[in-house]
Structures are given as C-alpha cells and as structure tokens.
Amino acid sequence: MNAPVLLVSDVTRRRRRAAAPVADASLELAAGEVAALVGPPGAGKTTLLAVAAGRLAPDAGWVTVAGVATGTLAARALLGYAPEAPVFPPTLSVREVLGYLARFHAVGIARRGLVAAALERSGLAGAAERRAAGLPLPLARRLALAQAVLGHRRVLLLDETLSGVDAGARRTMCERVRELAASGVAVLLAASDLAAVEQIAARVLVMRDGRVIREAPTAALLRERVLEILLDAPPAAPPPGFRLTPYGLQTDLGPRSAEAALALCREHRLAVRASRVRFRTLEDTLLDAQGDGAR
Amino acid sequence: MHWLRCVLAEWQLLRSRLVRSRLGIWLLLLGAGGVWLAARGGPLTLLAPHVAMLGAVLGVAFTAGSDADRAALSLILTHPTTPLALAAGRWLAAVTAAGTLVLALLFVAGAVSSGPPGLLVRAGAAAAGAAAAAAGCALVAGAAGGNALAGVLFLYIAVPSVISADTLGAGPAGALARAGTLILELLPGVWRYAALERGDLVGWVHAACWAVGGVAGTARLLARRAL
C-alpha cells in the first residue's frame, strides 16, 4: 500500500446533539484508493466523515491529510467534503456557487478554468444557471461532488453523495469518482446505496455503534459463499454456525463444502427440503452488522 | 493575499443579494424615506448615520443572517477560507450596502437643499462610522441568533437608539432606567454616532470597537459552530 494520504487514528467522539458517537475508529486511505463506510443508520458514518473533514472536533484521537492536521487551512485545501444534506448559499446559481467557492482555491483564468471543468465533468453544464438552493436532490448531489473536487484536492469525503439518485446519474457519478481515483485522489464514501459501493469501492469498512467492526476488500466480501437451506419445519435452535431465517437456515460456508454443512443439518435431524449456494452480497454484510434483529 | 481574496469572495456575494433578494427593495425604501425626511428639513447629520445603521443591519440580514446563509457555512468552511475572512467579507458587504445608500441619500439631499458641502462630508463620515459599528453588531447578532436577533437590533436602532443615554439617565432613577441607560451606552446608537460629525472621539472609539469586535466575535462564533 502507498503511504496513506488520509490517516484517522483512534478517533473518539461522544454523542452530542444529533451526531452519532464514534469510538476508537481508525483507518488509512492511500492515494487513488476508493473505500466505503457502510453500516446501519446511526452507526457513526457521518460523524466520522465530519471529524475527518475537520468539521467536528474529536474528543480523542487525530486525523491527518497528507501529514497535515485536519481542519487547518492547508488541510482544507487538500481535502474535499460533500455533506449528506448540502446547503448552498442562497440566491446563487450553480455556476455562481462554484465560482464563489473556487475563489478560495485559485485566481483569474485558473479559477474560471476550475469552474468550467467542474460544470463539464459533473454533468451540470445544462443546469449552470439554475438556482443552487432549489435544485432537486440528484442535481444537488452532483453539485456537492463538484464543489468537493474544486482545487485538485487529494482526498474526497463523500457522505451519501451517490445515494438517492437515479441509476443513470449514479453511473455518471461513479464514473467521475473512478476518474478521480485514477488520477490519484483518495475517496472515502459513506453510502447506504450498496449498488454504488459494489461498483466503485475497493475496500469496505463496516461500522456499528460508532466502531469499525469489519474491514475487507470488496472483492473478498463478494467472493464469500452463503448456503441457504429451506426446511420443512423450523428447528427449535439452529445447529452451530447456522442462523435462523424466515424460511429455514443460513450459514457462511467459508472453506467448508456445502455437502459438509448439509451433513451437519442431517446430524441434527433437520428435514431439508431444498438448498442453494450463492455469493454473499454487501447487503448480507450490512445486515450482519445490524444484528439478528434486522433479519 | 489569500486572506484578502477570501474576504473579496464574501464581499462579492452582495451583488447577487442586491438584485435577487429583497435587500435592494428595502434599501431603496429606506433611502426614499431618508430623502423624504431630508426634504422636510430633517438634519442630515442625524439622518445619514440613522439610515446608514439601518442599511447596515439590512445588509447583514440579507447576506449573513438568514437560516440558509448560516446553514451554508458548514459547506463553505470545508474550503480553504477562514471564519475571520468570512466575517470580514460579510461585514464589508454590509458596510458597502449601507455606504452606497448613504451616498445616494447625500447626493439627492445635496441636490435638493442648499447646505454647505462640508456638512455633506461630515454627515457622510458620521454615516460611515455608524454603518461600520452597526454592521459589526448585527453580524454578531446574526451569527448568534439569526435574523430574529438582527430584527430586534433593527427595531432598536430604528426607534429607541435615537434617545440619548444622558436624557434617559436624567429621568427618574430605577432599575429599568438604569438598564435602558446601560443598553444605550453599550449598543451602537444613533444618539451617539450623530456626534461623530463633530469629531467626537468617544463616539469614534465606540464605533471602532463595535466594528473590530463585531468581526472578531463573529469569526469566533463561526469557528465554534459545529455540525
């Protein structure tokens, strides 16, 4: 792995107001890497991103962006943040919002170039003269991404930026994120839209109750096999390593074969009506994080 | 240099607010009221600071105090600008709005009346000081309590701040009178800044304190503002 451009070390932030708490969260992000934070609502994803962006101060731990403490002027020049519910300055058009924010990054021709590129690459050229404050959600998300990218930042934090948009818009935005990653920008996104995560994230970090409880390459997570078993009658208790489902049982196979798992069911005198092996989805991972109650 | 660019970025928000919000209309109405009073013999040395202070509060209300403006700070402050530059730029925008209004008022008043040019200059200087102080105070009010608090300040400047603290202090003593006197002494007031045209040193120091303190206090409030 390259030297990390974003380093989050043992960050803790206690619950304050509506922000969910974060406890001992650590992560590293290398240049050009795309990682995703997933987890149930209230898991602390937004809080962790806000701390990493320097918008919230941690109670313990620290965050650096390319070796610079987050929240400082130098760090804000290196790190772009697209909040979950972006609020743009009122009365300004999309072009003016980008122009206003670009003033903090460049001057003269360079600034105008930044704005033109941002409009073009985010697919907002057609909406450039619309009022930013009244944009529908998909366009507001695009503008949030466009402003976060301004100034050739090296790290991007995207909070649900790829969620709540239609498939076409999502594909366009995913392509934009891939393009940015290919140019060396590290991207950390919090997403409830797992389809987008599967498309672009190389690594997934699962959060629950403010902690990162699992971290794995997306490909590895999606390679895991799950055995689903349909039973004639539900058992009083599942065999070891199995979970109860509304239709029967489920287990992560790991290195085991499906036959070995089915043999275990027969040893427990369970009447297996049917079974199938499928690959694990990110939704399974998320539901695991939410616990059995969500199943 | 970067800091000045950030200040300028905030200041440039004024143009869109003037033409796309009600700020322009309110300033026009305020200016028209000022001209109407000046034409009926109202003293320019009192009218100009009064109009300038009200214009400055309106400028802050329409560039910094609204809920949307305050909410947008979360996004703006993820870019390489500083709360101090933000506060200074918006203060400058409000003072510019008020200054433009006063210039127009003095121009029209000068054209319709036959006062000495020196009077217009002195009234303009007093108005500049008054606008700077009122904008600083309104910024703090807007950052702390939004436009609700800025509205209270507007009403205070519009009516009670014309009364001199000395006048109130000379009346019957009581807790209410003492509190009123204290407010009139502390907050920017027309009674105090009307004396700026005579070179009142205390008045100028008072205005400078509100201008500098208002910007610095607002920057501090913005820096502490969390999601």
Structure described in brief:
Chain A has 295 residues and is of the alpha/beta class.
Keywords:
heterodimer, A: alpha/beta, 28% strand, elongated, B: 227 residues, mainly alpha, 11 helices
Task: Break the fold down into its secondary structure elements and pairings.
The complex is a heterodimer of chains A (295) and B (227).
Chain A: E1 4-13, E2 22-30, E3 34-38, H1 45-52, E4 60-65, E5 68-69, H2 73-78, E6 79-82, H3 94-102, H4 108-121, H5 137-149, E7 155-159, H6 167-182, E8 186-190, H7 194-200, E9 203-208, E10 211-217, H8 218-223, E11 225-231, E12 243-245, E13 248-252, H9 258-267, E14 272-279, H10 282-290
Parallel strand pairs in A: 3-8, 3-9, 6-7, 7-8
Antiparallel strand pairs in A: 1-2, 1-4, 4-5, 9-10, 11-13, 11-14, 12-13
Helix pairs in contact in A: 3-4
Chain B: H1 2-11, H2 13-20, H3 23-39, H4 44-65, H5 67-76, H6 83-112, H7 117-158, H8 165-170, H9 175-186, H10 190-193, H11 201-224
Overview of the structural elements:
The complex is a heterodimer of chains A (295) and B (227). By secondary structure, chain A is an alpha/beta fold. Helices cover 33% and strands 28% of the residues of chain A. Chain A contains ten helices and 14 strands. Chain A has a six-stranded mixed sheet, sandwiched between helices. Chain A has a four-stranded antiparallel sheet with strand order 2-1-4-5. In chain A, strands 12-13-11-14 form a four-stranded antiparallel sheet, with helices on one face. The radius of gyration of chain A is 22 Å and the shape is elongated. The model of chain A has no long low-confidence stretch (mean pLDDT 88). Chain B is 81% helix and 0% strand. Chain B has 227 residues and is mainly alpha-helical. The two termini of chain B are 29 Å apart. The longest helix of chain B is centred in the middle third of the chain and has 42 residues, at 117-158. The mean pLDDT of chain B is 90. Chain B has eleven helices and no strands. The chains are: A alpha/beta (295), B mainly alpha (227). At the A-B interface, helix 2, strand 6 and helix 3 of A face helix 1, helix 2 and helix 5 of B.
